[in-house]
């Protein structure tokens, strides 16, 4: 079921992939991405996959639901998850990961708790979180590194893993480029948004990536806004 290695040929280069990018510019771009998530379906796609997990069942819980977000950006998705939990009577605690300390600090107001680190080698114990999320992140990595990240997410989650990605289509690339002008996106965000789409995944590719990484066939769904999600119960979990 291995996804075609030719997918890596489609990859461009995003400014956000450069650690030398000025932190203030990276933070500005991540905030543009947060707006894009909110307006064009990235946040809704993740919340749709967590709908059942964020419902309180009416009985007292010994502890809150814990959610880890790898590549949290501006921290907008952890914030949205907590708010969805609150509306449903579910206490949620979130931790977000970014790859540099300045970006982690900038995400803290929304993500709740943040840490700096590498998603390919998470300094987190096996099964430490109920849910692991990774939204609009895997397309930044080579296929081999994306396999490693999927394995890491599967390792740290007890209950569910959710991956959200951009579905690669020409229409999505044109749409984000056109929308970026009236929304006032920074030129870096405009460039990276288009490149992100062409580095995105088809439904088949995302399913194959998860299967190649951990031997599990995930539930893969299309969502509005040219989004695609893969979700599964971590290996060895009930």
Give a verbal description of the structure.
The chain has 238 residues and is of the alpha/beta class. It has a single domain (5-232), classed as Vaccinia Virus protein VP39 (Rossmann fold, 3-Layer(aba) Sandwich), CATH 3.40.50. The protein is built from 8 helices and 7 strands; from the N terminus they run ααβαβαββαβαααββ. It has helices at 23-40, 42-49, 76-87, 101-111, 143-156, 170-180, 187-198, 203-214, and strands at 65-70, 92-98, 113-116, 129-135, 157-166, 219-223, 227-232. A 7-stranded mixed β-sheet has the order 3-2-1-4-5-7-6, with helices on both faces. Strand 6 (219-223) and strand 7 (227-232) form a beta hairpin. It is globular, with a radius of gyration of 17 Å. The protein starts with 22 loop residues before the first helix and ends in a 6-residue tail after the last strand. The relative contact order is 0.18. The mean pLDDT is 92.
List keywords for this structure.
238 residues, alpha/beta, Rossmann fold, 7-stranded mixed sheet, 41% helix
List the topology elements.
Elements: H1 23-40, H2 42-49, E1 65-70, H3 76-87, E2 92-98, H4 101-111, E3 113-116, E4 129-135, H5 143-156, E5 157-166, H6 170-180, H7 187-198, H8 203-214, E6 219-223, E7 227-232
Parallel strand pairs: 1-2, 1-4, 2-3, 4-5
Antiparallel strand pairs: 5-7, 6-7
Helix pairs in contact: 5-8, 6-7
Stretches where pLDDT falls below 50 for ≥5 residues?
none
Give the total of beta strands.
Answer: 7
Radius of gyration: 17 Å
**Total domains, how many?**
1
Run of helices and strands: HHEHEHEEHEHHHEE
Cα-to-Cα separation, first versus last residue: 25 Å
Number of helices: 8
> Which band does the percent of strand residues land in?
15-25%
Task: Note the main sheet.
Answer: 7 strands, mixed
Q: So what's the overall shape?
A: globular
């Amino acid at each position: 079921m291995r996804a075609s290695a030719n997918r890596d040929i489609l990859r461009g280069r995003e400014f956000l992939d450069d650690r030398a990018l000025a932190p203030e510019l990276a933070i500005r771009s991540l905030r543009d991405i947060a707006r894009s998530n909110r307006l064009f379906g990235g946040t809704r796609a993740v919340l749709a996959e967590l709908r059942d997990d964020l419902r309180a069942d009416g009985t007292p819980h010994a502890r809150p639901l814990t959610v880890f977000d790898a590549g949290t950006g501006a921290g907008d998705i952890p914030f949205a998850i907590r708010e969805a939990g609150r509306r449903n009577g579910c206490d949620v605690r979130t931790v977000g990961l970014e790859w540099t300390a300045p970006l982690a600090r900038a995400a803290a107001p929304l993500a709740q708790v943040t840490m700096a680190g590498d998603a390919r080698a998470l300094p987190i114990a096996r099964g430490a979180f109920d849910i692991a999320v990774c939204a609009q992140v895997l397309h930044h990595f080579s296929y081999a590194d994306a396999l490693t990240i999927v394995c890491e997410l599967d390792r740290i989650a007890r209950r569910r893993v959710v991956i959200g990605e951009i579905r690669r289509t020409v229409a999505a690339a044109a749409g984000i480029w056109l929308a970026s002008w009236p929304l006032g996106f920074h030129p870096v965000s405009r460039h990276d948004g288009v490149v992100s789409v062409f580095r995105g995944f088809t439904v088949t590719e995302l399913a194959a990536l998860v299967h190649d990484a951990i031997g599990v066939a995930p539930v893969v769904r299309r969502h509005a806004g040219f989004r695609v999600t893969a979700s599964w119960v971590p290996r060895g979990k009930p």
